[in-house]
Design goal:
Elements: H1 4-15, E1 21-28, E2 31-42, E3 45-46, H2 59-66
C-alpha cells in the first residue's frame, strides 16, 4: 500500500492524542497518489478529504520552506 508508513504514523499520532485529525494529499505530475482524511474534524464529524480546515499561521513554515 502506498504511504502505509505515513498513514501509520498519522494514526499513531491521533491515537496518542498528538492531534485530533489530519488530511494527506500528494500528487506527482498531475497524478493524485493519495487524498485522504484521518481522525475527527470535530467530536461528531469524521475528517474526510473534503473537510475544510483552518490553516491560520500554518502557511508561514510552508512559505519559508518554499523560499
Amino acid at each position: 500500500m502506498r504511504f502505509s508508513r505515513t498513514i501509520s504514523l498519522i494514526r499513531q499520532g491521533i491515537d496518542r492524542g498528538l492531534h485530533p485529525a489530519a488530511q494527506l494529499y500528494v500528487s506527482r505530475r498531475g497524478e493524485v497518489l493519495i487524498d485522504e482524511g484521518f481522525g475527527q474534524a470535530s467530536p461528531s464529524t469524521p475528517m474526510t478529504r473534503d473537510s475544510l480546515t483552518l490553516w491560520m499561521s500554518a502557511g508561514k513554515p510552508l512559505a519559508a520552506v518554499s523560499v
